[in-house]
Amino acid sequence: MKISKKAYYGLRATLALAQTEKPLSIHTLAEMEHLPLDYLEKILQTLRKAGLVTAHKGVAGGYALARPASETNIWEILRELDPPIKTFSTPLKGELPCLHVGHCQTNEVWRMLENKIEKTLSDVTLESLIPRNNS
Amino acid sequence: MKISKKAYYGLRATLALAQTEKPLSIHTLAEMEHLPLDYLEKILQTLRKAGLVTAHKGVAGGYALARPASETNIWEILRELDPPIKTFSTPLKGELPCLHVGHCQTNEVWRMLENKIEKTLSDVTLESLIPRNNS
DNA sequence: TCTAAAGCAGACAAATTTAGTCCACATTAT
DNA sequence: ATAATGTGGACTAAATTTGTCTGCTTTAGA
Hints:
2 copies of one chain form a homodimer. By secondary structure, the first copy, chain A, is mainly α. Chain A has a single domain, classed as Arc Repressor Mutant, subunit A. Chain A is 49% helix and 6% strand. Chain A contains 6 helices and 2 strands. Chain A has a two-stranded antiparallel sheet with strand order 1-2. In chain A, helix 1 packs across helix 2, helix 1 (5-19) packs across helix 3 and helix 2 crosses helix 3 (37-49). Chain A is elongated, with a radius of gyration of 18 Å. The two termini of chain A are 34 Å apart. In chain A, 30% of the residues are buried. At the A-B interface, helix 1 and helix 5 of A face helix 1 and helix 5 of B. Chain A binds a DNA duplex (30 and 30 nucleotides) through helix 3.
């Protein structure tokens, strides 16, 4: 039940993109936020493939948010970078799918929890996290 | 953002204790739930130290819930076994405590998330998870 | 009072996951 | 052309999680 650095870095990076509305290269981004360059690159790749940021190559290239910060919520970002709750439907040593026939109590809990997390994080947009946003 | 096996095992075990109201030895517990014995022992130790289960040694010893199942919520259990959300207050390469002067946006998010998780799980008692509880 | 069944404690090892690096390549603005 | 960028994949290192082992203490009951 912890947030990975990957997710943390990703949030930091997208937040930076949200603030400076210009596209930024991974290089500047890494420097700005003091994040490891090559790792950050991987993270942005993931986000690009998920359609959350856009990249363009070449000399004046860089990354930018695919949508405005007000329309990008952090659940979208975090779920790509942190795997969802692993719900164990099978105990490791048993052969049956789940020993608790009928329904599995713990699975229900995880599912509920995940829903709650999703709802909570979906309500937070990148924009709402930009500091000094005294509108 | 995932539940560890440790937490899963711990929940399974306490749930078993909640159902059979007799004390159970780790041995029987492990067998019942198909969990690795020695690991389970560690887990129960943690829960004992947290005051959630009681143990007594000797031939007819074993573990039992410290409080009735209706008064034990699963947040108490899970928080002992799964470390809380690690909030990174410091970026790794920087010297300053946090680059985002004034307040750290991401920390706020993690804190909020953790609160939500706590609230959600605190509402679930062990008793409520016992199957066929058609009262 | 002996003994076997339990819990206790801590070191250790294996497995898995996360974090991070490296390198060769593709694209593109100037 | 070329230098600045992103792309993709292999790889390594570090950290964490999971699991095991070994020797000890306690205690009920024969």
